[in-house]
Amino acid sequence: MNDPASFDPERSAPPGELAQLTPLVRRMLAGNASAMTYKGTNTYVVGHGEVSIIDPGPEDPRHIEALLDALNGERIAHILVTHTHRDHSPGARLLSEATGIPIHGCALPEPARMATPAEWTRFQSVHDQGYAPALILKDGECVQAGDHTLTVIATPGHTQNHLTFALQEESSLFSGDHVMGWSTTVIAPPDGNLKSYIASLEKLRRRSDRLYWPAHGGPVTDPQRLLRGLLQHRNARESAILNRLEAGDEDCATIVRNVYGNIGPALQGAASLSVLAHLEELVESGRIDTSGPGGLESRFFPKLLRKPPEN
Ligand SMILES: [Zn+2]
Asked: What's the 186 CA to ligand 1 centre distance in angstroms?
């Protein structure tokens, strides 16, 4: 499969098979398909002979074994990690233990704001607590091996520590969970921050990468168009949420019901947190007011709603 434009995720290679996508990019799907991970996590192999591995995936020894079998003696130069959600980084530890190659990746997990106790529990449950990089990569740094050069681009928003990697030789970008074709990215406080996410989308708009390789689903062949669409989508959602506040909705659950309609229980939690991310951004920018304990339990009010003067 050498023409990314004709890439069909429905017909992509099954988990455990290493598929050649472009001269420098190969991909192995992990067997962790779900409502949140789509077909599963994409582990990318960049280069030939001396390779860089991006996102070795979940804690799944079979996936790592299959990857090492398929590499058949090629030397791993770098083990790279976009962020520490459990479907991305735990495999890095397995791969590092199996090969002795240290992990070079994103920073340790850290919430984007102070977390309530319940939020802290959730935060810990979604992040890889065993993540231990030998080197934390910084924005603008270059990672080089054999026939390829990757530039680190920090893209906080989905998580505070999220990185993407630009492949210079093919003018493409490994976009992690920051930009994906199959679904919009989940921005879930206190992990995610909408303002950072928007700034990271704008950052990619200023670049000219012609193709994105997301951590879930097939490639994005017109990234600039998708970035514009994602920004429009967030603006539309913000307007819808502001309209619901004007209509008297005060809490996340009610707004989710009225904005998203009937979504399945699997997506309910993600939708609530996504609405909360918008509400927190609106509070931060001084456009709405809030009261209550913080997080999903808070109440929110439009600023313009003032009691009319009594005559
Ligand atoms: Zn993620």
From this structure: 8
